[in-house]
Structure formats: structure tokens, C-alpha cells
Amino acid sequence: MNPIHRITDRNEEVSHQLLYIWETAVRATHLFLTEQNIAALSPLVIQGIRQIPHLLAYTDSDHYLGFIGVQDTKIEMLFVNPAVRGRGIGKQLVTYAIQTLNVLYVDVNEQNPQAIGFYEHLGFRVFDRSERDEQGQPFPILHMKLS
């Protein structure tokens, strides 16, 4: 059985389970964000979870372990529960998205070197940089393309 599946029912329970993964993953990897930043981003994450065209999850039996959101050919979100990081879940989600959704692009916080290295390992290369994130905050973004 494939552990990756499309999430079609984005009800409140599912949204909050994915938000929990996002929050714990962000606290583990986005060390430049404050608790205020995380609280301010949470409603935007819920909105993204509910509206992103392609939302895929990696599960073991009935628990979400990670998820990826794709719009057009771009990864908009990829988060894995820190308790299972390093087990290839993120790689499987990205590989699946490349193969089935023709993903070519991803944006990464410049202050998150683990994510940059992860995407570089999968074949993405930086082609541009923005000084601020989508919310206008001074968190530089690296724009990456699959080479």
C-alpha cells in the first residue's frame, strides 16, 4: 500500500492535524522565527491547507507523518513531523510530486540551511533570491528550480 495519498476531505480535524505537523516542524527547523511569527502564520497555513490545489499526505496506518502542497509546478509547502525526520518521508513526498505533478520549483527560507541542502540533494538549484518573504517580512527567500 502506498503511504502517499491525496487529501480530498480538508475538514477541520484534518487541517488541525496538518497544522500541528507544520508547527512542530517549523519549531524544529525555522529557528529564526519567533513564537509571535509562528502564531501570525498559523491562520495563513490553515488557509493554504484548505485551498492549495494538490495536497498530499504521507501516512502510517491512520496518522499523518508529513504533507506536501503543490500549486501549478511549485511546491508551496512541505513539512514532516520532527519525530520521524530523517526517514525519507520528505524525499518520498517530493519525488512523488515531481513524478505525478511535474513539480519544478520551490521557495526556501535562506535562514533554513537544512531545507536548502535537502532540496539541493534532490536536484534543485537556486536561480533567484528575494530579500523578503511573501508576507513582507525580512526573511530572505531562495527561489529554486529542479535542474
Secondary structure layout:
Layout: E1 4-6, H1 12-29, H2 35-51, E2 54-60, E3 63-71, E4 74-80, H3 89-101, E5 105-109, H4 113-121, E6 124-130, E7 141-146
Parallel strand pairs: 4-5
Antiparallel strand pairs: 1-2, 2-3, 3-4, 5-7, 6-7
Protein name: Putative acetyltransferase
GO molecular function, one term: acyltransferase activity, transferring groups other than amino-acyl groups
Keywords: Acyltransferase, Transferase
Please describe what this structure looks like.
This protein is an alpha+beta fold and about 150 residues long. It is about 40% helix and about 30% strand. Strands 1-2-3-4-5-7-6 form a 7-stranded mixed beta sheet. α1 packs across α2. The mean pLDDT is about 95. One of its GO terms (molecular function) is acyltransferase activity, transferring groups other than amino-acyl groups.
List keywords for this structure.
4 helices; acyltransferase activity, transferring groups other than amino-acyl groups; Putative acetyltransferase; 7 strands; acyltransferase; 147 residues; alpha+beta; seven-stranded mixed β-sheet; single chain
What can be said about this structure in brief?
The chain is 39% helix and 30% strand. The chain contains four helices and seven strands; from the N terminus they run βααβββαβαββ. It comes from Paenibacillus riograndensis SBR5.
